[in-house]
């Protein structure tokens, strides 16, 4: 099992922890190092709407059920839209993120980019919601 962290230089425990109220926050250290490098390259704050999710909460809010990407501590959703979203996707590809979900419809304040670094040949690299 890889090392876990609950915060980093630019991301606080409160924004990384599960939103169900359980207080769990098991982010993968290697993923967080990659996310920090991306944040440095991006050069401005990246507001997260979701990071770690406990399996029960993930099953309630996502079709990925008890074992989705957020339950691994290797996924985040960044609230972002427009040109900044485009730039973030370009940088995410450059910095080795292997899963990029694009949700850019609806109200601007709800638009986001999902980022993860999971591996596997059968999963899409880029998708839209």
Query: What is the total tally of β strands?
Result: 7
Choose one word for the global shape.
Answer: globular
* Radius of gyration, CA atoms, in whole angstroms: 14 Å
Instruction: Please work out how many helical segments DSSP would assign.
Output: 4
Compute the separation of the termini in Å.
31 Å
Spatial order of the strands forming the largest sheet: 3-4-6-5-7
Arithmetic mean of pLDDT: 95
Oligomer: single chain
Largest sheet: 5 strands, mixed
User: What's the order of the H and E elements?
Assistant: EHEHEHEHEEE
**Category from helices, strands and their pairing:** alpha+beta
| Low-confidence blocks of residues | none
Keywords summarizing the entry:
29% helix; alpha+beta; 129 residues; 7 strands; two-stranded antiparallel sheet; 5-stranded mixed β-sheet
Describe the structure concisely for a colleague.
The protein has 129 residues and is of the alpha+beta class.
List the helices and strands and how they pair.
Blueprint: E1 4-5, H1 13-16, E2 27-28, H2 29-42, E3 48-50, H3 55-61, E4 75-79, H4 82-94, E5 99-103, E6 112-116, E7 126-128
Parallel strand pairs: 5-7
Antiparallel strand pairs: 1-2, 3-4, 4-6, 5-6
What would your notes on this structure say?
This protein has 4 helices and 7 strands; from the N terminus they run βαβαβαβαβββ. A hairpin with an 8-residue loop joins strand 5 (99-103) and strand 6 (112-116). The strands form 2 sheets. Strands 3-4-6-5-7 form a 5-stranded mixed β-sheet, covered by helices on one side. It has a two-stranded antiparallel sheet with strand order 1-2. By secondary structure, it is an alpha+beta fold. 29% of the residues lie in helices and 19% in strands. The protein has helices at residues 13-16, 29-42, 55-61, 82-94; strands at residues 4-5, 27-28, 48-50, 75-79, 99-103, 112-116, 126-128.
């Amino acid at each position: 099992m890889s090392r876990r962290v609950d915060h980093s230089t630019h991301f606080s425990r409160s924004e990384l922890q599960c939103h169900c109220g359980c207080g769990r926050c098991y982010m993968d250290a290697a993923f967080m190092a990659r996310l920090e490098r991306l944040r440095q390259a991006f050069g401005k704050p990246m507001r997260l709407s979701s990071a770690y999710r406990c399996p029960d909460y993930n099953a309630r809010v996502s079709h990925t059920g008890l074992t989705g990407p957020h339950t691994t501590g290797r996924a985040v959703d960044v609230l972002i839209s427009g040109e900044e979203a485009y730039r973030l996707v370009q940088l995410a590809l450059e910095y080795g993120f292997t899963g990029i979900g694009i949700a850019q419809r609806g109200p601007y304040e709800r638009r986001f980019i999902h980022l993860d670094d999971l591996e596997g040949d059968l999963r899409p690299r880029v998708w839209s919601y």
